């Protein structure tokens, strides 16, 4: 439905919309990927949303491993191929095993705490709230701020999934591989 903004249409406003997310040398259509190149079609919206998304991905109080488990389960629920493709690779880089990634897909983890995380995402998706029992289970390892970050990670990545799915943003060739991320970094 929406394609990435063509390179010839990029302007200072499009590049500025990415300022909270990517360093200046990467604010180019060939360096930010299809999602960000599509979001900058509306630079004011992108400039407002991306700092929040950056917080969720980089500054959240959630441990990285738990954050990626939440994002993967969220991507699964929304059928978001783009999020799944990128975050399954990120998840592996922060310590999730293949079995952990599969648990995010199936909703069934062997680790009791991971199961509480998956249950929390499932409850948010199904009923827009975390039950008292699951909230308590999460509290065995997460404090109140971390549990709040878990909820907002689900919400932020759900919003992003809605956009990526609606705009039909295509996963880049090679996404999910270390080589792909190395080319973006250079």
Mean pLDDT: 94
Beta-strand percent range? under 5%
Please tally the β strands and state the result. Answer: 0
- Going by CATH, the architecture of the largest domain would be Up-down Bundle
Class derived from helix and strand content: mainly alpha
Q: Which of globular, elongated, flat, extended, rod-shaped describes the shape? A: elongated
The CATH class label of the largest domain is Mainly Alpha
Task: Extract low-pLDDT stretches.
Answer: 181-186
Count of helical stretches: 10
CA(first)-CA(last) distance: 29 Å
Largest sheet: none
Mind telling me the C-alpha Rg? 17 Å
- The secondary-structure element order is HHHHHHHHHH
Please tell me the total number of domains: 2
* CATH fold assignment of the largest domain: AhpD-like
What's the CATH superfamily of the largest domain, by name? AhpD-like
Helix-residue proportion: 55-70%
Structure description:
There is one protein chain. The protein is mostly helical. It folds into two domains: 8-57, no CATH class; 62-167, AhpD-like (Up-down Bundle), CATH 1.20.1290.10. It has helices at residues 12-17, 33-39, 43-59, 64-78, 81-93, 98-106, 112-127, 132-138, 144-166, 178-185. The chain starts with 11 loop residues before the first helix and ends with a helix.
